[in-house]
Amino acid sequence: DQQVKQNSPSLSVQEGRISILNCDYTNSMFDYFLWYKKYPAEGPTFLISISSIKDKNEDGRFTVFLNKSAKHLSLHIVPSQPGDSAVYFCAEGSGGSNYKLTFGKGTLLTVNP
Amino acid sequence: NAGVTQTPKFRILKIGQSMTLQCAQDMNHNYMYWYRQDPGMGLKLIYYSVGAGITDKGEVPNGYNVSRSTTEDFPLRLELAAPSQTSVYFCASLAGANVLTFGAGSRLTVL
Questions:
Q1: Dihedral, CA of residue A24, residue A26, residue A30 and residue A36, to nearest 10
Q2: Rounded to the nearest 5°, which phi and psi values hold at B28?
Q3: What is the pLDDT confidence band of residue A1, given thresholds at 50, 70 and 90?
Q4: B90 contacts on A by Cβ (under 8 Å)
Q5: Is A30 on the interface with B (CB under 8 A)?
Q6: C-alpha distance across the termini of chain A, in Å
Q7: Is A43 exposed, middle or buried (0-12, 13-18, 19+ CB in 10 A)?
């Protein structure tokens, strides 16, 4: 049973518009949620995170929203740029002294010029 | 800092062969991880280590072994390679309170 679910395998948006990537989770005992971006033939790179005690975190064009009652989080990218085209993974961080990340399957974002 | 370095980048193995994927980090991080990524799937944790001499199983450890004799190195050993182990393997280290830094990956094909 998946702990972290990204139900949209792909998303296509126009340059300059908003991209919204979604993630649902089942484990309420997490410490952080993180978003990673991955280009082909490269390792995942960290984008933004949010701790369990917050409901929003912003970093430039990227904002993550956490809705604990719905066990849902989303990543907003505004404005979207062609260079944002990549696979985005949602990951849950938990485990205390055995800290580790559990990943969703990813969403392929394509930003069209 | 070179970050997390993985070798080799690519490897083709025959069924039943063995090999070791190397991972090294120069950031003095205690926590290190091995994940695998199959097409259309997220990253699945194979093994992790919270410090030299300490390793533990992740979600998909069968067919793999690890060791952690130094803080810098965390090699992943594949014994008796099988086609199901065809995947891209990523090594990572814990860079801060919650963020993992990943290597560029090692693509393994078992034929």
A1: -30
A2: 60, 35
A3: low
A4: 43-44
A5: no
A6: 38
A7: buried
Which among A43, A91, A97 is the nearest to B104, CB-wise?
A: A43
User: Is B103 in the A-facing interface, judged by CB distances under 8 Å?
Assistant: yes
| Dihedral angle computed from the Cα positions of residues B10, B13, B18 and B21, in that order, rounded to the nearest 10 degrees | 10
The one-character DSSP state at B98 is S
Q: What pLDDT sits at residue B24? A: 97
Instruction: Give B80→chain A minimum CA distance, Å.
Output: 26
- Chain A hits for B4, Cβ within 8 Å: 43
By CB atoms closer than 10 A (0-12, 13-18, 19+), residue A103 is buried
| 3-state secondary structure (DSSP) of residue B83 | helix
A72-77: strand order across its sheet: A4-5, A19-25, A72-77, A62-67, A56-59
- Asked if the model's pLDDT at residue A31 lies above 90, the reply is no
Could you read off the pLDDT of A42-81 as tens digits, one per residue? 999 999 999 989 999 999 999 999 999 999 999 999 999 9
